[in-house]
Amino acid sequence: MYFRRSIVLLLAILLRCYQVNAQNNNQPPSLLGQKSILLNVGTQGVGAEFAYGVLPNLALRGGLNFIPFKAHNVFKISGFNSTSNLSADFYNVHALADYVPVKTASWFRLVGGFAYFFKAKGDIRVIPSDDYKYGDLVLTEDQIGYVDLNVNWKGLAPYLGVAFANTFPRNKFNVSFDLGTYYLNKPKADITGTGLLEGNSSQTPQFQSNIKDYRWLPIVQINFSYKL
Amino acid sequence: MDTLRKTRWLLVMLTLAACKKPTENIKIVIDTDVIKYTALINVTDGQNGSPAPAATTIAITGTAANDIFELSGKKDIKLSSGIVTIGLRPTVAPTTNQPITVTAEINAPGYNRETRQVTFRAETKQQVINIQLTKTGSTAPPVVTPPPPVFNNVSLTFTGRCPNRTDLEIRPSVYVYFKKSDSNAAFQYLGYMDKGNISTNLLEQGGTYDFQIVYGAETYKVSQKIDQTSYNLTLDMPAACNF
């Protein structure tokens, strides 16, 4: 329900932006020399950017984003009663180019660029949740141990996407949207275990194989701009 | 976790856009080395070296008997193929100055009762106790099994399979016996397999061998022809799959 309301709100804002642009678009604005700062929130977390128009139809954006994330019990291994603690950290600095392909539709932009993810990892700790017995012996948590699944995408990632609404506010503020995706580095995955689960490191090659195509990081982002 | 966080999680991780489930075909690997101080007791018929009769019983007595468990963690200690591995409760350990001693008493119909002290010492985590039964009234001396010949090293990695739990895999730590498949001789001691791994120089290249372990009062066997220097062998070990 919440998600549906968010989508409706997003579409309403988009429509409003388009209407405002249409009203003001008697003469398409040049991006050259314009500056703004942006705060954003989306699937790559929260971040900030500085945008500068380098050509009449091209602006550059540079900034950083981060998303520290923790959750419990979002991960299950079939047939194995367990709890899981997940942490995901994606920190990047990025440089993007916003190109307005159609002068009369400056609210639509093609966006390309790169990000360097200096932190891009997901860690899951799986802890058996049952009171495990070994024969007639009841095992302690330390004896049973836990399994850690770690994935790391650290490195350079290209970005391609589109953006809606003007890069630079006509007045002081505006709201714009980014839709796109990063193509992340090939992930390095490993499994480690402790206690009776120590032998699970042998499952690393299978895990690496399963995770190797997890490279697309989609971006859905809302930007709040302030014109300098 | 609220809806927003769930949505964000789904967008960030699930839409990292891949096809395969991250845990597809991943098994949970479980070690069996819960009991650290162990002693394998191998009871044979002293006249021919074959395993003790099926009706042979073993009783553990002594002040520390309450801390003795079968290798699979069971309190009930039984022989299988004349073999059982006993060990100390994981929370109990001998010290240099205070070894822990119990007595193993073996009874078999038609044979003399045998008792043997089993001492767990801090510096010895594994040991083999051979007990040869003598028939009542017999004066024949027990057979002496010659030591097996020595060859080049071969590495064996054993994996325990759970017939009813394909998501589990066992990494056994257990004593291994062996014999040539085409031989009628009794199984001989090969060594201790630590977390599934054992290296031995008792296997001849070109020979086919039966390997035997006893775990949870069950005997498990697997055969392999040896013509390489390393092998991965799989044993069905249902007694180790009760997790």
What does this structure look like?
- The complex is a heterodimer of chains A (228) and B (243).
- Chain A is an alpha+beta fold and 228 residues long.
- Chain A has a single domain, classed as Porin, CATH 2.40.160.170.
- Chain A has helices at 2-24, 141-144, 204-211, and strands at 35-42, 45-55, 58-72, 82-99, 108-128, 133-134, 137-138, 147-152, 155-164, 173-183, 188-193, 216-227.
- An eight-stranded antiparallel barrel of chain A has the order 1-2-3-4-5-9-10-12. In chain A, strands 6-7 form a two-stranded antiparallel ribbon.
- In chain A, a hairpin with an 8-residue loop joins strand 9 and strand 10.
- The longest helix of chain A has 23 residues, at 2-24.
- With 243 residues, chain B is mainly beta.
- Chain B has two domains: 36-133, Immunoglobulin-like; 154-240, Immunoglobulin-like (Sandwich).
- Chain B contains one helix and 16 strands.
- Chain B has one helix at residues 3-13, and strands at residues 28-31, 38-45, 57-61, 68-70, 83-88, 100-107, 114-120, 126-133, 154-161, 168-171, 174-180, 188-193, 197-200, 208-215, 218-225, 230-236.
- In chain B, strands 1, 9, 10, 13 and 16 form a five-stranded mixed β-sheet that branches. Chain B has a four-stranded mixed β-sheet with strand order 4-5-2-8, with no helix packed on it.
- The radius of gyration of chain B is 22 Å and the shape is globular.
- The model of chain B has no long low-confidence stretch (mean pLDDT 91).
Helices and strands in order:
The complex is a heterodimer of chains A (228) and B (243).
Chain A: H1 2-24, E1 35-42, E2 45-55, E3 58-72, E4 82-99, E5 108-128, E6 133-134, E7 137-138, H2 141-144, E8 147-152, E9 155-164, E10 173-183, E11 188-193, H3 204-211, E12 216-227
Antiparallel strand pairs in A: 1-2, 1-12, 2-3, 3-4, 4-5, 5-8, 5-9, 6-7, 8-11, 9-10, 10-12
Chain B: H1 3-13, E1 28-31, E2 38-45, E3 57-61, E4 68-70, E5 83-88, E6 100-107, E7 114-120, E8 126-133, E9 154-161, E10 168-171, E11 174-180, E12 188-193, E13 197-200, E14 208-215, E15 218-225, E16 230-236
